[in-house]
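Why do we care about 3D structure at all? Because function follows from shape, and shape follows, mostly, from sequence. That is the central idea of this module. The next example makes it concrete: a single protein chain, its amino acid sequence, and then its structure expressed as tokens.
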Amino acid sequence: MSSMHYFDCCDFTIASEIAWPVSFPASREPEVEIRYRNLPTDLGEGGERGFRFHAKPNELLICVDGVARYLIRGGKEIWIEPFPHADEDSIVAFLQSSVLGVLLLQRRFLVLNGGVFNVDGEGIALVGCSRAGKSTLAAAFQRIGASLFSDELCAIKQDSSGRMMAWPVLPALSLWENTLIQQGGDVTKLRPIRPSIRKYLVPTHAKSLSPVPLTQVVELKDYHGDLLWKTVDVKEAITLVLGNTYRHRFLIGMALKDAHFLQSTALIQQSRFYIAQRHLTVTSEDAFFHFVRTNLAL
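And the structure:
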């Protein structure tokens, strides 16, 4: 029998046959298991089918070509069948992103595509599409003392009083090689996320797993013009949350659309929403950081 690895994520503990390069130490009995298994190619009749996935209520099968097949079930089980010659780093990379995101959805978290950091007991989320600059901006806020909760998955859940709380997910940043070099980092001392890409895991050494209220959400956008900061009204906030929901195409098949609507409504009622736009190829990372920091009054 393979040895198990134990670590915390959000409000639960994981027991896993596969080690994670960075994680929070375990503090309770595990509620989630990750194991290697032989998996079917689909979930049988019915359900929602899409490109490389098959979803049923509280169950999802994902196929990542050349890497692995993953089955996430009931918010408690993740089974993995690697393809021949797949490397472990690639298996873990998808496990810690798309697969973990689905597990969080099944555990009734609202999951946004972005990171979140803690400033003086308040959570601030940075959301947006790939390469919008979320990780780079999060790294800049960390350098001025903010505590990074997550980089790619912004996990939010209501507490017993109804407050929408942001939870720490993974204590690491994912940064591209050119960004690390610009910041004076030494990539030779860091672990690539996958052998085929020049993106690296940068541990944040965060230790606290206490959640904080998510009070502000900033969507980062590419804009071919001057820097622009916009306060988002309620109607626009609905579109913003849906557009930045992590793997939202899986919600209908897993019967989570109603839960997502209720969570989104609660977040919109409790948080402030903004859009920060810049010209990606013209505005420097430093100028954009100072622009966002000033508008957030941090």
